[in-house]
Specification:
The protein is an alpha+beta fold and 316 residues long. It has one domain (5-36, 119-315). 28% of the residues lie in helices and 27% in strands. It has 7 helices and 17 strands. It has helices at residues 40-45, 132-148, 160-174, 183-189, 191-200, 227-247, 257-268, and strands at 13-14, 18-20, 23-29, 38-39, 49-52, 62-67, 73-75, 80-81, 90-92, 96-98, 102-110, 207-214, 217-224, 273-275, 282-287, 291-298, 301-309. Strands 1, 2, 3, 12, 13, 14, 15, 16 and 17 form a 9-stranded antiparallel sheet that branches. Strands 5-6-11-9-8 form a 5-stranded antiparallel sheet. Helix 2 (132-148) runs antiparallel to helix 3 and helix 5 packs across helix 6 (227-247).
């Protein structure tokens, strides 16, 4: 990975895989780099991060985040954003570090097509992400668009229509219904089976990331700067892959350790290009024949590295 010498992936190793039904996870063990960064959910719980529409009328692809903390706040790619002040649920287009004591306008995608009004109805849990298939499609499109137009900031290159199509396809596959076409209702309807995956696929305390496979296909990995940041986001990442796994029942064949290592090696040997981004740190992207990825780096340390194999296309 041609970025910074200290961040090559040869410093990590894989632990023994854990499997439940057709989902296999390889824990990634690596160095814990302590960084003074707050997580989105903890700031919401302490009311130290205010999320609002950019105006009274609002704008679908934008939200304001007012970080009242003295340290940056991390928003993960695909994070669900809900709230009574919002006219519809949104998702974050790419991992972002919000500067301390600042209001930042962040690019988002709508994940609730059938609503554009504030409401006092019960809001779905924020502890979820865009499901893995849709995140891959989003990332591949964003990488291609930003490469075609060097003046376009990566976070602004997402395709809203594509996101709605992915969500509607998931509703159809599960034969589910939502009056507002909210992605969160899919998670709510599958809550019990998703909890089974959470109970069975617990990560070791040393893990700083994980590689995910459905059937015998290794489809992606998530790597963080430390265990705390990973464990804080693991449940929503796990559910994002589990939702795809239960949709498409595959064979009981499992991937090998070498299969998982191959994805890491592919990412480590790829050229990552810096692109325009919002917030703190530097954002790099990889878009090769076999993988697409984003890497958010702050002061020489990887905050979040998310990578998908383009075998994911076969899952769509």
């Amino acid at each position: 990975m041609k970025i910074i010498e200290n961040n090559t992936l040869n410093k990590v190793k894989l632990d023994n895989p854990k499997a439940y039904k057709n989902l296999t996870i390889f824990p990634i063990i690596g160095e814990n780099i302590d960084l003074n960064i707050k997580k989105f959910l903890e700031t919401i719980e302490t009311n130290s991060l205010e999320v609002s529409e950019v105006s009274q009328e609002g704008a679908v692809p934008l939200l304001n985040f007012n970080n009242e903390n003295n340290v940056p706040v991390f928003l993960i790619d695909g994070q669900t954003i809900t709230g009574e002040k919002l006219k519809q649920n949104r998702i974050i287009t790419v991992s972002t570090l919000l500067p301390p004591k600042e209001k930042t306008t962040v690019s988002v995608l709508c994940s609730e097509r059938g609503r554009w009004s504030r409401t006092d109805r019960e809001f779905a849990s924020r502890d979820s992400s865009m499901f893995a298939k849709a995140r891959f499609s989003k990332m591949e499109t964003m990488s291609s668009r930003s490469e075609e137009d060097s003046n376009m900031a990566y976070d602004q290159s997402a395709d809203q229509q594509q996101a709605w199509e992915q969500i509607n396809r998931k509703f159809s596959s599960f034969n589910d219904y939502s009056s507002s076409e909210s992605m969160q209702d899919i998670y709510k309807n599958k809550e019990n089976i998703l909890k089974e995956f959470e109970r069975e696929l617990i990560m070791p305390e040393q893990a700083v990331g994980a590689i995910f496979a459905i059937g015998n296909r290794v489809l992606g990995f998530e790597l963080f700067s430390n265990h705390d940041l990973f464990s804080n986001h693991y449940a929503q990442l796990l559910k994002s892959y589990a939702l795809d796994a239960i949709e498409k029942r595959t064979s009981d064949a499992k991937p090998s350790l070498n299969d998982a290592k191959q994805l890491l090696n592919e990412a480590d040997n790829s050229v990552a290009k810096q692109c325009k981004n919002n917030g703190l740190g530097n954002l790099f992207t990889i878009n090769s024949d076999n993988i697409c990825a984003t890497i958010l780096i702050l002061n020489g340390s990887i905050i979040h590295f998310t990578c998908f194999s383009k075998k994911m296309r076969e899952e769509l």
